[in-house]
Amino acid sequence: MPFLPNYRPKKLSLGFLEKEILEIVWELKQVTVKDVHDRILADPNRELAYTSVTTVLRRLTEKGWLRCEKQQKKGRAFYWEALVSRQQAQAIQAYERLNNFLEIGNPDVVASFADSLDTTSVEKFEAIADKLKRLRQQRQEGG
Prior knowledge:
Elements: H1 16-28, E1 30-31, H2 33-41, H3 50-62, E2 66-70, E3 78-82, H4 86-102, H5 107-115, H6 119-142
Antiparallel strand pairs: 1-3, 2-3
């Protein structure tokens, strides 16, 4: 089950290429610029400069999504790895979206939205509410 990690990237917004490269990093666990570049160019219909991959990896590092390390054993190569898992990223982004929605602060707007949901969505909300009650009860009993 994804959980909300204590660590969060500094900037959550990602462009299309940033998302694509982050997916590659999650899949391969640890990457070089060449790994990512080769993976993208495996699609014969794609063109992307090697330097563009370097720029995006650096940008993802600056945003707090990746960590970059120089591997002494393997020459002068730099390796990137994700600071949060794909599941943690999904949880963080869902949390931020929900908080942004709830910041509307108008109970009538939130209630109107909730009222328009289909039965399946309402059942999901009820399951979430039940889970929250159990988690809070466990926290109170344990601490």
